[in-house]
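Before surveying the methods themselves, it helps to consider a single example record, giving the amino acid sequence and backbone structure tokens:
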Amino acid sequence: MFSPIKTTKVYEQVIVQIKDMIDKGTLKKGDKLPSERKLVEQLEVSRASIREALRALEVIGLIECRQGEGSYIKTSFQDNLFEPLSIMFMLEGTTPEAIWELRKIMEVEAAGLASKRITVEQLKELKVITEEFMNCSDETDNAEIDNQFHYKIAECSGNVLIFNILKTVSTLVDHFIVDARKLILAHKENKDVLFNQHYEIYLSMEKHSSAAARKAMREHLDFANRYMKKEK
């Protein structure tokens, strides 16, 4: 399981061994780490070194320490992506348009992948979301349903990296998207336009056509982006 450590930077070697166990599948998402006492015994290092390693792993977002319960491998890592990306967004002067371009690149490809990988159950869920979008009259709820639709497509792509990165970059431009929706829906006929675009994406999933899915998603995002540019 663990190997004794003999090095000056003890806590770093503790981290290396825990990461290695994750890489090999010995530790998985949600697993509880051995207690501090057991780690001290197995790794033959001081309790201070173990605590330093656990603090470092918690800071980088690999584990979560629950008071009175112990330390666990995290099950969700979206927040880990958001913080560094949001700081980069501010420091680098990244524009919302640049993030939108990244989102478009990912979502078009995600739609293509999802059309091939979507399951019968996921297709049913996507249909429900599509119908909710058309029938909902509350804009706040509609914006959330819109997000759910895009996240479901990303989830159906079967690529966890696409899903998590999309949710992260979407969070960065959420207020721009809300403002763009206000501009879009200032024209009443655009609600039908948005529904038809979402429905075309859904139909491409139903047909399992990657070409149709990419085309429908690209047209939808280009339409929304025109209004985001007006908001700048």
About this structure: The chain has two domains: 10-73, 79-231. The CA atoms of residues 96 and 173 lie 6 Å apart. The mean pLDDT is 85. The longest helix spans residues 96-117.
